From TrEMBL:
It comes from the Bacteria. It comes from Aquamicrobium aerolatum DSM 21857. This is Glycolate oxidase. Residues 51-229 form the FAD-binding PCMH-type domain. SUPFAM superfamilies: FAD-binding/transporter-associated domain-like, FAD-linked oxidases, C-terminal domain.
Length: 498
């Protein structure tokens, strides 16, 4: 697994593996327990396929009672648990551990309630993101957050990572669209946070759980907000001779007070890969492409399209194509939605990074990435949620060549350091997982990290949920404060933390 360090497996737990597997079969009878090596291969990685690890055992519960019993059993016996949804995490958040129960929630796959009066859907966590929209679209509603993996990613996983998508600029990430959850603690206790009402009283524990990456509890039910489909939605394709011009156009559109339903940017390698894959009609003679979607009343959309077109021309746009039908609008988006698999066709492997920057820094960061590409001798294809500054550089490499994975990891780390340097953050929607774990001191002080770990201690005092993820070094709750971070460096950096 390259240079990635993970917690050492607990020998006592591994010695009890046969007993643990037998007890899991009692809790989840039938085919809900997988312990054969070949059968577990399916679960050895997630969307960050550079890292792989067989779990100790895979358990697929079907009821909340089963989840509660599993977690109570593991909590009482000091057994680690790694929660997993659809396994589409791009930061290694669902990477198994050799001495942990991999708790897979894919059998929780039913829509439980559709309430148009309150504009909510209540679903089990294994329902796909797109499945929620499919359940309500015949009545003119939809669920706004739309990750590129929405056909496969689960709503429970969206909560774990606070997922976004192309429409998050106007309608928000998962955190802005989830109203309530049911969750199970490591003690087996089942608790509810929020509901169909707008805001819950007291501490914002729902906000705390959204984006918690499986470190605090296991979600077993989700209530989300659904929206009425806009009267009109039209998309504009804008081509530019440089990424800097496209980046400035993004800043000027937002600066003019226009908030598009979505605003995405692709550079030349991503444009060509997507066009070859989908044939979306993208111009191939440009260095950067913006897809800007305006939605709302028809008169407003027509006016805003004119405004956007004028701003693009002032920034040197060389092409402008406006959708004239719903089919054409969807075709514009088809290429963007397929950008990740499309890039997979032009490189044996790639790392999909995720950082967020202030919009005004986009030209500077793009220039910096070009310099880093030359430094590391690796190509990069860029796909951005440009409107909110969420970058997704795809670093192309070949894992069969000895040092390319290590170079790709170093390249990615430098991109994220650049994001932080210009006032951004390490992640926008993919989470920290294992991918960005060791970069956390670049962004957070010792005090910051200790405070975050104290929150985990309140929910999971023995650190049994998803250890080895998010924090560069975990220590027992009684040992808080012993890790020292100075100027972004931990003491004695040569000592393996994980």
């Amino acid at each position: 697994m390259s240079g990635l360090k993970m917690p050492l497996p607990d020998a006592a737990t591994l010695a009890r593996r046969a007993e643990i597997v037998a007890d899991m079969r009692i809790i989840v009878p039938g085919e809900g327990v997988v312990d054969a090596e070949n059968a577990m291969r399916v679960f050895e990685t997630d969307g960050l396929t550079a890292y792989r690890q067989l779990p100790m055992v895979v358990v697929l519960p079907e009821t909340v009672t089963q989840v509660s019993r599993i977690l109570k059993y593991c909590g009482e016996r000091n057994i680690k648990v790694v929660p997993r949804g659809a396994g589409t995490s791009l930061s290694g958040g669902a990477l198994p551990l050799a001495d942990a129960v991999l708790l897979v929630m894919s059998r929780f796959n039913r829509i439980l309630d559709i309430d148009y009066a309150n504009r909510t859907v209540t679903a089990q966590p294994g329902v796909t993101n797109l499945g929620i929209t499919h359940a309500v679209e015949q009545d003119g509603f939809y669920y706004a957050p739309d990750p590129s993996s929405q056909i496969a990613c689960s709503i429970g996983g969206n909560i774990a990572e606070n997922s976004g998508g192309v429409h998050s600029l106007k309608y928000g990430l998962t955190a802005s669209n989830v109203l309530g959850i049911e969750m199970v603690l490591i003690s087996g206790e089942v608790v509810r946070l929020g509901g169909k009402h707008l805001d819950a009283e007291g501490y914002d524990l729902l906000g705390l759980m959204t984006g918690s990456e499986g470190l605090l509890g296991v979600v077993t039910e989700v209530t989300v907000r659904i929206l009425k489909k806009p009267e009109t939605a039209r998309a504009v394709l804008l081509g530019f001779a440089s990424s800097e011009e496209a980046g400035q156009c993004v800043a000027d559109i937002i600066g003019a007070g226009i908030i598009p339903g979505g605003m995405e940017m692709m550079d030349r390698p991503a444009i060509h890969a997507a066009e070859d894959f989908v044939q979306a009609g993208y111009p191939l003679d440009v260095e950067a492409l913006l897809i800007v979607e305006l939605d709302g009343p028809a008169a407003e959309v027509d006016h805003l399209i004119g405004e956007v077109e004028a701003i693009a021309k002032r920034n040197g746009s060389t092409t402008c194509q406006i959708s004239t039908s719903e089919a054409e609008r969807m075709n514009f988006w088809a290429g963007r939605k397929a950008a990740f698999p499309a890039v997979g066709r032009i490189s044996p492997d790639y790392l999909c990074m995720d950082g967020t920057i202030p919009r005004k820094e986009l030209p500077k960061v793009l220039a910096g990435m070009r310099e880093l590409s030359e430094k590391y001798g690796l190509r990069v294809a860029n796909v951005f949620h440009a409107g909110d500054g969420n970058l997704h550089p795809l670093i192309l490499y070949d894992a069969n060549k000895d040092d390319e994975l290590a170079r790709a990891e170093a390249f990615g780390a430098d991109i994220l350091r650049l994001c932080v340097k210009v006032g951004g953050v390490l992640t926008g929607e993919h989470g920290v997982g294992v991918e960005k774990r060791d970069l956390m001191p670049e962004m957070f002080t010792e005090e910051d990290l200790n405070q975050q770990i104290r929150v985990k201690c309140a929910f999971d005092p023995d650190h049994l949920f998803n250890p080895g993820k998010v924090f560069p070094q975990l220590h027992r709750c009684a040992e808080m404060g012993r890790m020292h971070v100075h100027r972004g460096q931990v003491a004695f950096p040569d000592i393996p933390r994980f």
